[in-house]
């Protein structure tokens, strides 16, 4: 999933803000994709990215910089 790596490495990540629903969906897709892969380093990498996204979702400072309030 090159797009996930680009999302993390791309400098535009700092300028784009995501809703919590988008962040949860991205994490869900990463987990789902990694489960479809055979065991190995690539699968582990995708699972680690998903785990990192989970920990970031709990970080208030990171959320303030990267997420928008999707409640109206």
Can you offer a commentary on this structure?
- The chain is mainly alpha-helical.
- It has a domain at 40-67.
- The chain contains four helices and two strands; from the N terminus they run H-E-H-H-H-E.
- The chain has helices at 2-9, 20-36, 41-57, 60-66, and strands at residues 18-19, 67-68.
- A two-stranded parallel ribbon has the order 1-2.
- Helix 2 packs antiparallel against helix 3 (41-57).
- The mean pLDDT is 81.
Compact description:
The protein is mainly alpha-helical and 72 residues long. Helices cover 68% and strands 6% of the residues. The chain has a domain at 40-67.
Notable features of this structure?
72 residues, mainly alpha, two-stranded parallel ribbon, 6% strand
Provide the helix percentage: 55-70%
Which stretches are poorly predicted, pLDDT < 50 over at least 5 residues? none
Structural class: mainly alpha
Q: Give the overall shape, derived from the CA principal axes.
A: elongated
Oligomeric state, counting identical vs distinct chains: single chain
Radius of gyration: 13 Å
Provide the succession of SSEs. Answer: HEHHHE
Span between N and C termini? 33 Å
User: Strand tally, please?
Assistant: 2
The profile of the biggest β sheet is: 2 strands, parallel
Which strand order do you get reading across the main beta sheet? Answer: 1-2
- What's the number of helices? 4
Residue-averaged pLDDT: 81
Strand content: 5-15%
């Amino acid at each position: 999933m090159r797009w996930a790596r680009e999302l993390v490495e791309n400098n535009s990540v700092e300028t784009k803000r995501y809703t919590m629903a988008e962040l949860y969906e991205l994490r869900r897709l990463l987990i789902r994709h990694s489960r479809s892969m055979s065991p190995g380093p690539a699968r582990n990498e995708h699972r680690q990215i998903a785990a990192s996204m989970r920990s970031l979702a709990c970080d208030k400072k990171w959320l303030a910089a990267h997420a928008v309030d999707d409640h109206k």
